[in-house]
Amino acid sequence: MPQYNEFWNPYRFVPRRPGQLPRRKPQGHHLFNGWLGTIDCELEALSSLVTGQERFTRKRSANNLPVIPGTSLKGVFRSVAEIVGHGCPIVNRDNRCRSSSSLCAACRIFGYLGRGVHAGHVSISDAVLIESPVDPTQWEGIKVRFGRPDPQHKAFYPTDTRLQWHKLYHHQPRRTKPAAYPHGNAREETVEYAPAGSRFRFSVTVENLSSDDLGLLLYVLELEPGMAHKVGGCKALGAGSSVVRIVDWDLRRGENRFRTQAAKEEVMEEIGRYKEQYINDNSETMQALRALMRWDPNDTREIRFPDRNWFNRNPQTKLRTWQEYAGRNARP
Predict the structure, then answer these.
(1) Pick from 2, 291, 310: which is nearest to 168 by CA?
(2) Structural domain boundaries of the chain?
(3) Which of 240, 232, 158, 148 is nearest to 185 (CA)?
(4) What pLDDT digit, counting tens, does each position of 177-208 carry?
(5) CB 195 within 8 A of CB 134
(6) If DSSP codes are grouped into helix, strand and coil, which group holds residue 60?
(7) Can you tell me the distance from the alpha carbon of 308 to that of 310, in angstroms, rounded to the nearest whole number?
């Protein structure tokens, strides 16, 4: 937050892992020596959820039910994979992957569009509404003022150029619907939102994924108990907090793809240790991630943007660190 006791700014920064990005050649799609199958997931909105303007989304299912586009979910999970798996940030040109023969974990899993092109090893379906506390035909619309990130206010942004940082938006449990954006020059639009408690179902298709990359994927899907994703639009305004749960899966080695499904205990024993390494990781990156993605329904802090008068009065005031936001407990 600005160092100002009445409120917290909506975002903070996670320090990226130091050192060179671990890259390697991805497994080819012509060989079946990795994991393949499906992972069925459920997404529950913990706060209001926005994925479009005017209507909840411009794309609806065959049964005319609201959906969260799979492309939106893919972006959510890739962003977390970039942090957890020390992947290349697609918004930073200086450290991007440059060739399909040498890719970071995020590009191996989700795809790479640079020189050589790599299709990735996962595809994510649209998430279709399965339950909502309010009939979707009665979902409310609200006018919100959108704004773009403004790195021109340099006091809010990290100055240590030796490290790279990833911006994350805080959960805002006290918000029941998206808040207004205070800047007078922000554009105003009407958005429809799914209420908290709405649940969606989607599936992740895995094709020829290595064990370590599958472990990373499983982690970024579910995270850890007490953590939640931010999905869709209006994140800074309090929308998008969502928890993802794996409800079923059918995974097998490519060479065993025509055999009966392996016992799930055997599969998890083999790939679970790769997921566990992230759960047991107490690096600064992971501590910050846990602190900033923590969902605490009892958190009553006011989170909002400063208004222009505040910026004029406090041009050099910095954000509080993630440690200050977390207090003593970085883990959920």
Answers:
(1) 291
(2) 11-326
(3) 148
(4) 887 655 555 567 788 899 999 999 999 999 99
(5) yes
(6) strand
(7) 5
CA nearest to 150, candidates 9, 49, 285: 9
Smallest Cα–Cα separation from 45: which of 295, 279, 225, 223? Answer: 295
Q: Are 97 and 109 a contacting pair, CB within 8 Å?
A: no
Angle at 17 between CA 7 and CA 242, to 5 degrees: 50
pTM of the model: 0.88
Mapping DSSP onto H, E and C, the string for 209-262 reads ECHHHHHHHHHHHHCCCCECEECCCCHHHCCCEEEEEEEEEEEEEHHHCCCCCC
Q: How far apart are CA 80 and CA 244, in angstroms?
A: 13
Q: How far is CA 278 from CA 103, 149, 228, in A?
A: 20, 30, 16
Q: Which element (helix H / strand E) includes 289?
A: helix 284-292
Pair of tokens at residue 299:
């958190």
**Residue 90 in tokens:** 């697609």
